[in-house]
Amino acid sequence: MTVIFTVDSFTHELFKGNPAGVCTSFQDVPSSPKLDKLFQNIATEMNISETAFITKANDSSSTGRYFLQWFTPTNEVDLCGHATLATAHILFEQFLQSSSVDELIFETKKVGELKVKKCDQEGRLQMDFPQGEPQPIELNAKIIDEIKSKLNVTQRVLATQLCRRTKKLLIELSALNDDIKPQESLTEIRFDPSIQPFIRGIILTSNSTNTTEDFVSRYFAPWNGILEDPVTGSAHTVLAVYWSQLLNKSLLRGYQKSDRGGHVECELDQQNKRVWLRGHAITVLQGQMNISRDSFSYDKTM
Length: 302
Fold this sequence. Notes:
The protein is an alpha+beta fold. It has five helices and 18 strands. The protein has helices at about 35-45, 80-95, 140-150, 235-245, 295-300, and strands at about 1-10, 20-25, 50-55, 65-70, 75, 105, 115-120, 125-130, 135, 155-165, 170-175, 200-205, 215-220, 225-230, 250-255, 260-270, 275-280, 280-290. InterPro entries: Phenazine_PhzF-like. GO terms for molecular function: isomerase activity. Keywords: Isomerase.
């Protein structure tokens, strides 16, 4: 049987934050294209924003190293924050609870090594991610109007930036209200050909109206089969850089204002061009899929 968990990330409350699937049944075998096909089928069946899968690390010389992949219901993605947090939470809670290991290292296909460690007595975990690289970009008025119309945005657009590496378009608004609605039709927008390949999600953000958070945001990624992601770690690698420049501070608190909502603390490590994302996670579900791991992994006819 294949063991699967569901974890709510960036929250300490059940049914809040962002749910992620975590599959740990393949941690002792290497990644392969054949396993990728199975992982995609499992992620499609799970039908939540991302499901994470760990396999054997290429460098397995030490405890606490794994190879990590993330799949949406439609495709594999280069980076996913909340599913990384969920994976670390499950490993610490289910497999390393009696171990002295307090930091995990995840090898990845596209973004190098990611580190996650226990960071305080409150049970939060800290993820060490590469910084986003948002750059100012001008969008013509027709494109801006089309985005606003599709998302039901009525507020003023204050700035637009694009992070080509994470393929996220950031739009700062004068406010972020509850009238904004996710739409699959965002994928119909025809951006300039020079930037079209670099847009797989849209971040809407504004300054916070209270003293608890520095900024608020929402994230829409129908290009990856996700109308709206409840809480997005990878988006905060971009948001942290953007708001750090505006507010002139390196430690920021973000709140993703989706229906479920979630809190992400961000701290920039400017010297190493990294961002530390901190948050809680809570296990919601543990179950089994009727999939024989060994028959799939080693049956070459499949």
